[in-house]
Amino acid sequence: CGKSMTLRCTEQAIRIVQTGDENNPVMAEDKVLVVYLPDCHESIAGIVAGKVRERYYKPAIVLTRAGDEEENGDKKAEDAAQKIAKGSARSIEAYNMYEALRAFDNLFIKFGGHKMAAGMSLQEENIGALRKGLNEAADLSEEDLTEKVKIDIAMPMRYATGQFVTELERLSPYGNGNPKPLFAQKGLTISELTVQGKNRNVVKLSFAGESAKGVWFGDGNAFEKEYAAGDTVSVVYTPEFNEFRGQVSIQMQIKEIKPDT
């Protein structure tokens, strides 16, 4: 239930950035994304903000309507009656979220956090002023808003044997202080491309001369518009084991892909 709610709220937030709705203007050109999702549960606001940040590589704040839950009834009811919004922020390397919010502390009931993440509560009526203020003050260049991918080594996919992937797994668990190793290969020709999943958010790829399959997660419809069999691309990938119906194979999780020029 939590996973489906997160997916639904994330898809709603991404749609709102592009088209707006009754609670939000169109934000596609904004440098700081402030999305108000009244019906999203505040417990997943941070996850959704992180997903929006990943999608656009822009600082993102997701706000929800406080209250309405049954637990802590009196406090929740009070928040709902006062039209208080609560939310979470996730940032990018070039943008100090805490300092940016501190410049507008008069708009908040309370807020706290650090450079890359923050939490806050404010009156719903102040959301527009926060969005406007953050964007007018945001000194972010196109370079700042372009995600930089740091690879560990350029390596052909065929070098990622079962033994190699087993050795990589010994480095886990992965996280902020221990990111997954990233590898890159140029000059790959897509030999087959299929979009799968109920939400068409899984792209399976085969490459000429490579036995391992690739998998990419994201908007499959948009991917199909940009790439087709026969295209030559460069990819950033992580090799991993994939188990399906009792069969284990090596697949390459594609982190970045771009046309070769």
Q: In words, what does this structure look like?
A:
The chain is of the alpha+beta class and 261 residues long. The chain contains 7 helices and 11 strands. The chain has helices spanning 2-19, 45-56, 73-81, 97-102, 127-137, 162-169, 220-226, and strands spanning 33-36, 60-65, 84-90, 108-113, 117-123, 153-154, 183-196, 202-207, 213-217, 232-244, 247-259. The chain has a 5-stranded mixed beta sheet, sandwiched between helices. It has a 5-stranded mixed barrel with strand order 7-8-9-11-10. Helix 1 packs across helix 2. The longest helix has 18 residues, at 2-19. It is elongated, with a radius of gyration of 21 Å. The mean pLDDT is 89.
Give unreliable regions as ranges: none
* Sequence of strands across the biggest β-sheet: 1-2-3-5-4
Q: Give the percentage of residues in beta strands.
A: 25-35%
Question: What value does the Rg take, in angstroms?
Answer: 21 Å
Largest β sheet strand count, sense and barrel closure: 5 strands, mixed
Structural key phrases:
alpha+beta; five-stranded mixed sheet; elongated
Please write out the topology.
Elements: H1 2-19, E1 33-36, H2 45-56, E2 60-65, H3 73-81, E3 84-90, H4 97-102, E4 108-113, E5 117-123, H5 127-137, E6 153-154, H6 162-169, E7 183-196, E8 202-207, E9 213-217, H7 220-226, E10 232-244, E11 247-259
Helix pairs in contact: 1-2
